[in-house]
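Q: I'm writing up a methods section and want to include an example of the input and output format. Could you take the sequence below and give the corresponding predicted structure tokens, formatted cleanly so I can copy it straight into the document?
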Amino acid sequence: MVSFQLDDELEDFRHTVRRLAETEFSAKAAYWDEHETFPTENRDKLAELGYLGMFVPEEYGGSGAPIIQGAVFLEEMARVCFNTSLVCQLYLNGPARAINQLGTDEQKKRLLPGVAQGKTFIAISISEPEAGSAVTDLRTTAVEDGDGWLLNGSKCFCTGGHVADYLMVFARCAGSKGAKGIGAFIVNMKKKGVTVGHISKKMGGRGLPEADITLENYHVGPEDVLLVGNPESSKSFGLLMSSFGPERVGNAAMCIGLAQGAFDAAKEYSEVRHQFGRPINEFQGLQWKIADMATQIHAGRLMVYRAATHQAANGFPDPMDATMAKLFANEMAQKVTNEALQIHGHNGYTREYPMERMVRDARGFALGGGTVEILRNTIAALTYGHSFNQRRG
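A: Here is the clean output for your methods example:
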């Protein structure tokens, strides 16, 4: 029988992280949102304590922790400060994980220690103006140039691209179409040929904006080729996407944490707010809201823990479990934060309380890392055993 109850060690870890988040990060959670500022001091504190290297192997300065520990960590960070959790998500489940899984020994030795120390921030650059959900429509090209490659193209919605040290850029070999020919390259943001353009001001997660990136004859040396695409095969693209399976688990875990934080605040508020001569938690209608919220969070948490502990043959989370967990958690977080705001009444609609920020933060989960519509397509494909063509015939 499979149990999703955390063992004593993980529960102790949860309590440690919760105390850290509440004592160190809670007071300025609204600040990063209001000022749309990268939470550098929080990142540095977490790096100092070794949390950013949680998934980096020990030989590169990390602790080689399991996915479930990272899920618990992200949950507790998001419960208190969404922007800090988003930074952690990129360090833990972003390009560094792909480099660890797919990179050369030289790339790991050169890049991963800096990630573990919080000194190297690597953002991912996939989306393009004409390639969002239709990711295989990307147009950024990689053309062989001596012993390296030249990259040309325009990227958008690159989370943290304006503060990144490196980007992991998806590009296609000339002459390829669809999923065939897509590979990944490590781009040094200090080198000639890469520029940061427009920075989008977002509804939520405002401490980590998204940038447009332009690549103009950017030369990638052989040392920065992560995975070369083959014009006759989609294997490289498949490997790259599977390496981000844990990203969906992390995304879902942050949803659980954000929803839990909103729930906790709503429950506390319902105990002190009085109307009609008594605390509002004595009204059955509100009790039902609280019961539904608690049930939804509990269900989502079980799905996340299942995905975090059930690995496929390649060592990544089972695709169905990870996709279902993200889908459920994405929509659950919207429902719970919205209900938490409703329980606060008009106070929840003001910026004096964190509810309106939590509602805004929750909304982005259903878009980033795969929209809920694309996730449903994926679940259907896994259920039927084959993908369906979404294009016009």
